């Protein structure tokens, strides 16, 4: 048998687990001198494969386990492993596709809380090893004359993700990662309520903060490259009410304080690639 | 054979020990990193690595090069590996006699191959291309295996010897892997060590494994066992002064226990060199 055919056969048997598909491969195995059955030995690879991938998902998604409960979480992991085999040589990125998988999959896509949690936890993982930038202190603004201020636009840390999530996601996450996490987090009554969250990195660790609706819109617009002076007039605020310049200035100062801002420049532009993700 | 200079006694760098290492600067000669864990855009892993690199030599050990795979070499991966090497300036870069997947899929495991002429020609050609790309000799490690194949035309150590000589690469001798595979397949681990070209060995791995009675599994979650220490002694006698280290990847003990294992290694080596000095006198 050619090496390529052998590898296809071996991989198939690892991906599908023990069963009929193993038969041709089992015939290729030498007998164990210690009396281990060929099925047992092949099983080291088969079970190791699933355990390893399941472990990657568990490490990245304690909150998802808590909102789904152990059994449903294991079922989700099984589905994900079966349907989205890893294609990135770096194991770190195996779990990256989980939220999209859930949104595509009829079994999981209607569970807005679970999808929200998956998105939030992916943002936490992504923030952890996003590219390094140096945050600016609010004093950076002093370099600009007050006349320029309405024209100022801002660059944000690459770790920053803005999320619109099902209401209660953050409270569930906090409970799940607390010292004594409950077996399963009680689901809040299903509703269309949402909450807004910023996820980014501070001092080497992922951080998150809930945002008021007006701050969320302002931050999305600022991250899209719009100038400070323009944001006040954005139509986006018409649903969530006016945003007063004082309130926007207060938001801006907290973005500086949080270490989210890495650059200031005069003149905004439209970076439509910076649109926020949402559930 | 031109080889990088020996580094002494090292340890696999794992995130659980970052704080301890940075605060106590333990008496360890060098660290080995899992390359993939640092092939990232930024953040804490790279920041910790930079700080540790400032004080210790580093060796880069990969698990995803998939040298024996019949898929095309992954040059995206290789470019990232090379970029990391430019940052870290490792003493050397290693990976395994193994494949991790085909058809674009990766199983995140070190998978076995039949030891055939075809496999040999295949891996030799790939090691050569990787070495050309990285512009340095690659260090290649024997993996633990749980199955062996009726199609094999030679023993594992014959395969490793010919691979190393034809590809002109260096070798990482994982003493625990020799032991685990010899147990699982019934070959003589001493003959394995005697069969690999000692002049190409630049590094030893030592680790613990799990004993399942009918087979042993390379889990790196236990202390090194007595049989593997005995085999280490033989490897040391045969290969001389090469860099040696402990790999621990699960069931992490207090850091001091790993330092004790390194001390055990130093004690064995001191005894061996005393013996050598006495027999020379
Ligand atoms: Fe090893």
Explained architecture:
The complex is a heterodimer of chains A (279) and B (281). By secondary structure, chain A is α+β, with helices and mostly antiparallel strands. Chain A has a domain at 106-266: Outer Surface Protein A, domain 3 (Alpha-Beta Complex). Chain A has twelve helices and six strands. In chain A, strand 3 and strand 4 (205-211) form a beta hairpin. The model of chain A is unreliable at 270-279 (pLDDT under 50). With 281 residues, chain B is of the alpha/beta class. Chain B has one domain: TIM Barrel, CATH 3.20.20. Chain B is built from nine helices and ten strands. In chain B, strand 2, helix 2 (44-53) and strand 3 form a beta-alpha-beta unit. Chain B starts with 8 loop residues before the first strand and ends with a helix. The model of chain B has no long low-confidence stretch (mean pLDDT 97). The chains are: A alpha+beta (279), B alpha/beta (281). Chains A and B meet through helix 1 and helix 3 of A and helix 2, helix 4 and helix 6 of B. Bound molecules: fe (ii) ion.
The helix count of chain B comes to 9
Name the pair of protein chains with the most residues at their interface, and give those residue counts: A-B, 49 and 51 residues
Helix- and strand-based class of chain A?
Answer: alpha+beta
Task: Using the alpha-carbon principal axes, give the shape of chain B.
Answer: globular
Counted up, domains of chain B total 1
CATH homolog superfamily of chain B: Divalent-metal-dependent TIM barrel enzymes
- CATH class assignment of the domain at 106-266 in chain A: Alpha Beta
Segments of chain B where pLDDT lies below 50 for 5+ residues? none
Separation of termini of chain B? Answer: 29 Å
- Look at the helices and sheets of chain B and give the structural class: alpha/beta
- Mean pLDDT over all positions of chain B: 97
Number of helices of chain A: 12
Q: Radius of gyration of chain B, Cα only, in angstroms?
A: 18 Å
Question: What is the architecture of the domain at 106-266 in chain A at the second tier of CATH?
Answer: Alpha-Beta Complex
| Percentage of residues assigned to helices of chain B | 40-55%
């Amino acid at each position: 048998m050619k090496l390529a055919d052998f590898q296809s056969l071996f991989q198939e048997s690892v991906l599908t687990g023990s069963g009929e598909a193993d038969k041709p491969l089992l015939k290729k195995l030498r007998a164990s001198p210690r009396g281990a059955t060929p099925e047992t030995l092949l099983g080291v690879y088969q079970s190791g494969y699933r355990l390893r991938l399941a472990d990657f998902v568990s490490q990245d998604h304690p909150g998802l386990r808590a909102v789904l409960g152990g059994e449903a979480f294991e079922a989700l992991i099984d589905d994900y492993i079966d349907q989205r085999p890893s294609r990135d040589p770096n194991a770190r990125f195996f779990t990256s596709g989980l939220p999209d998988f859930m949104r595509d999959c009829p079994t999981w896509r209607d569970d807005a809380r679970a999808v929200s949690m998956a998105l939030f936890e992916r943002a936490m993982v992504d923030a952890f090893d996003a590219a390094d930038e140096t945050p600016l202190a609010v004093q950076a603004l002093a370099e600009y004359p007050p006349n320029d201020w309405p024209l100022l636009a801002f660059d944000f840390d690459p770790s920053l993700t803005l999320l619109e999530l099902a209401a209660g996601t953050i409270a569930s996450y906090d409970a799940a990662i607390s010292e004594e996490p409950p077996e399963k987090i009680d689901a809040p009554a299903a509703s269309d309520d949402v909450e807004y969250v910023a996820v980014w990195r501070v001092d080497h660790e992922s951080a998150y903060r809930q945002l008021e609706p007006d701050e969320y819109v302002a931050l999305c617009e600022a991250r899209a490259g719009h100038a400070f002076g323009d944001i006040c007039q954005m139509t986006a605020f018409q649903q969530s009410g006016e945003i007063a310049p004082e309130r926007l200035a207060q938001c801006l100062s907290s973005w500086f304080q949080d270490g989210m801002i890495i650059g200031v420049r005069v003149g905004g532009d439209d970076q439509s690639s910076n649109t926020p993700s949402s559930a | 054979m031109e080889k990088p200079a020996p580094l002494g006694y090292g340890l696999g760098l794992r995130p659980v020990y970052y704080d301890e290492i940075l605060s106590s600067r333990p008496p360890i000669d060098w660290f080995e990193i899992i390359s993939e864990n640092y092939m990232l855009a930024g953040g804490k892993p790279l920041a910790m690595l930079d700080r540790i690199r400032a004080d210790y030599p580093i060796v880069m050990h990969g698990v995803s090069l998939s040298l024996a795979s019949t898929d095309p070499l992954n040059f995206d991966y290789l470019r990232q590996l090379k970029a990391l090497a430019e940052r870290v300036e490792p003493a050397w870069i290693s990976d395994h006699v193994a494949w991790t997947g085909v058809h674009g899929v990766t199983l995140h495991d070190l998978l076995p191959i039949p030891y055939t002429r075809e496999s040999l020609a295949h891996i030799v050609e790939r090691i050569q291309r990787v070495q050309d790309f990285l512009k340095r000799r690659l260090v290649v490690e024997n993996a633990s295996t749980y199955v062996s194949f009726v199609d094999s035309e030679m023993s594992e150590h014959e395969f490793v010897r010919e691979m190393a000589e034809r590809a002109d690469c260096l070798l990482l001798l994982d003493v625990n892997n020799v032991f685990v595979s010899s147990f699982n397949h019934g070959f003589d681990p001493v003959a394995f060590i005697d069969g690999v070209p000692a002049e190409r060995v630049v590094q030893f791995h030592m680790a613990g494994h799990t004993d399942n009675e009918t087979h042993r599994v390379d889990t790196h979650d236990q202390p090194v066992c007595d049989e593997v220490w005995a085999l280490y002694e033989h490897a040391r006698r045969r290969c001389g002064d090469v860099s040696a280290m402990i790999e621990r990847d699960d069931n992490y003990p207090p850091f001091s226990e790993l330092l004790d294992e390194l001390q055990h290694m130093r004690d064995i080596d001191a005894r061996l060199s005393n013996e050598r000095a006495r027999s020379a006198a």
